[in-house]
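Lab notes, practical 5.
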Amino acid sequence: MSNLHKILDEKLVRVGVLGATGTVGQRFISLLSNHPWFIIHALGASPRSAGKPYAKAANWKQTTPIPSNVREIIVQECKPEHFSDCAIVFSGLDADAAGDIEGAFRAADLAVFSNAKNYRRDPLVPLIVPLVNDSHLSMVPQQQALHQPPLQKGFILTNANCSTTGLVVPLRALEKSFGPIEACFVTTMQAISGAGYPGVSALDIVDNIVPYIGGEEEKMEWETLKILGGIAEEDGEMAFDMHSRYPLRVSASCNRVPVIDGHTMTVSVRFSRRPPPSPQQVREALAAYTPQAQSMGCPSAPVHAIFVHEEPDRPQPRLDRYYQDGAGVSVGRVRQCAVLDIKFVVLANNVSIGAATSSIINAELAVLKGVVKLPIM
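Output from the prediction step:
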């Protein structure tokens, strides 16, 4: 255990949650309520919720009760002055509100870890899946330096779209073992919780599949390139290279299905390497994959970044979505593809690793790597 781990185990880091009464905000609160390093210090929501104890402001929709240490916290408006004592601010805001609010918090020199889409395409903002590309944290100092005025502690860091998250974890493991992937076809079967609350109408989703989720396919195809790509330097400035050294084509088809939690995907890939790896080599590489979030000791990281199922009918959302508290990814049915090289099935919990859990592990990594400047309680 490092000295920093020892300090964090003894002194808690104050954090805040924006959009605290929404479904993503509630998930943040559930995960943070017993966190070994972080303590919830401030909660932010809309003006109509501000001034109320959290238990009265939130229409709680989680499967566990509101944590007792949060029930009486007075909800504030999402203004930086109410969060000035927080080293980290988690944002579960809807995209309609997130852009201006998160920008204001960064300008106030606060570190923002966002689940919203607003800054994912920003050329200075890392888009990080913590089991994949924590090296992109190296972009934060440039983001701070180029901000006007320059920042000492503030930045924005986003996690990925929930379906993208499940896809890129096995893709990273395969590229690490076998070199570049040049083509990927993915078809998603996405849970209704991904649409938020109240979500898809029962008349639309019961006894049905909806073969369209607005903007989802474009997100998957674009975000995958930013996440799996590297960082290039030119004329003293860094930029995300969008996997341009080894062009990767991604074709996504996204569907909403009558499952509550857990996005399932069928994936086919073609490797640049010839001959391609065998299904058994792929299984072994997936099972052995160990990201830095595990090796550095992030408390919210899963024991297995990728759990490989040998059964022919797994993974399944009802059976496998909460394995490891939904912090890892499940893969099964690894086999040869007659069109590309290898095909397999992926399951990722969209409300855990696909949302709040990713932001929390990102923050843990940022603390361990010194990207977050700590005042500790």
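Observations recorded by the TA: Residues 85 and 258 are 42 Å apart (CA to CA). The mean pLDDT is 96.
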